[in-house]
Amino acid sequence: MRVVMFGYQTWGHRTLQALLDSEHDVALVVTHPRSDHAYEKIWSDSVADLAEEHGVPVLIRNRPDDDELFERLKEADPDIIVANNWRTWIPPRIFDLPRHGTLNVHDSLLPKYAGFSPLIWALINGEPEVGVTAHMMNDELDAGDIVRQEAVPVGPTDTTTDLFHKTVDLIAPVTIGALDLIASGQTEFTKQDRSQASFFHKRSTDDIRIDWNWPAADLERLVRAQCEPYPSAFTYHKGKRLEILAAVVSEARYGGTPGRIFYREGDGVVIVAGADARTGRNHGLAITRVRTEDGRELGATEYFTSMGGYLTSRP
Q: How far apart are CA 257 and CA 209, in angstroms?
């Protein structure tokens, strides 16, 4: 088929590479301008550079809503548009333009985790698996019929970076497999169960601020979710920001006030956690590695030279 691709960052780059390696013909690529936003500088392989290397025309847009773009799309005469990690709304006159409509590729197991940062949210929430979905685009966010979907398990120590590498490798088989089904003439695909749909927003500073009222297991997943190269989860100690780079759920149970710097356990220092920590039935979060405001990375037992005092959500 003749394809126009909308995409950005490494997800778009992998999608374009899969299309270039396939039997399909890429007629035009539309991508966003480079950005200094913290999350958009992560996994930032250039779609524009890859397209230009292969002689594919490129248009740079923040939003696909101008008449010049629409005319270029009509001239490209695509059988289908393929989109992956396009960050703004695509209007119906564009997604309905090709003969076969628009195939959107999303890094979650739709209908769950539509929207933004699906891998981070899924890991924080303790999902047992993550994956990639190719679905037909309609006028609702990530809501169209599912053409192809593949999943991978979430391991007990996986970070978001681990899950990124697992799922980005699914982009090519999911995308090309979906296109092959469409090219074969198939038109009936799996309806999404909208009662199971969930939508998530972009991550921000407040979303990585540690709340010691959370259970330790949830905080441990937050630390794994907010790992390098993502901004690290953080707390405050004596009024200064302290990033938590690694942590585990404590073996023993610790009672008291959430945020209390309590006890050395193995290679970690246990912080009391959970809104009901006073009961003494909770495990704590055993921090093992931290980064200070001045950029020093230290083992927790080296940083916390004495027990007592509190970690807090704000200075």
A: 18
Cα 110 to the center of its chain, rounded Å: 13
Does the pTM surpass 0.85? The reply is yes
User: What is the total residue count of the chain?
Assistant: 315
Element (H, E) at 258: none
Continuous H helices in the chain: 9-21, 47-53, 67-76, 92-95, 118-124, 160-168, 171-183, 216-225, 300-303
The DSSP secondary structure of 32-80, one letter per residue, reads PPP---TGGGSS---HHHHHHHTT--EEE-SSS-SHHHHHHHHHH--SE
**Share of the chain residues as helix, strand and coil, in percent rounded to the nearest 5:** 30, 30, 45
| 8 Å CB contact between 205 and 38 | no
- In tens, the pLDDT along 261-308 reads 999 999 999 999 999 999 999 999 999 999 999 999 999 999 999 999
